[in-house]
Amino acid sequence: MTHGYFSSLADGRTLRDDIRDYYFEMVQKINRAWWDQAARLKEPLRQDAVFDLKIQRDGTILAIQVLNSTGSREVDHLLMDIIMKASPLPALPATFSQDRFMAPLRIKAPSFFFRLKQ
After folding, report:
1. How far apart are the C-alpha atoms of 90 and 21, rounded to whole Å?
2. For the whole model, what pTM was predicted?
């Protein structure tokens, strides 16, 4: 947790059950990619950021948009690169009728006590 972690927004409360399960599975896969690559950070993650992912039915990430930056362009680009490396994500559930899913994703900066000294 010294590098932070990805999480949902509002714990997925506004999502239908089938999509909520998918969303948490997606976040878990992205976190695995993050924890494998987080050591690539050249500076500590100092603030939370929010990204918006556009996901195709087969789980391919089509696009990532920064909604709230970490405050560092370099860190934002590294985070987007790591998210893209998690693609393909699981396929969207059959009960989801649309061809694409827009998924907000938050990266939580480590608390002050866990931040790495640089």
Report:
1. 11
2. 0.80
CA separation (Å) from 82 to 12, 22, 93? 22, 20, 24
Q: How many Å is the Cα radius of gyration of the chain?
A: 14
Q: Which domain holds residue 61?
A: 5-110
Q: Residue 67 sits in a domain of what CATH number?
A: 3.30.1150.10
Please indicate, yes or no, if residue 37 is contained in any of the structural domains: yes
116 occurs within a structural domain = no
pLDDT at residue 21 in the model: 87
**Is 76 inside any structural domain?**
yes
Asked which of 13-22, 71-80, 82-91, 108-117 is least confident by mean pLDDT, the reply is 108-117
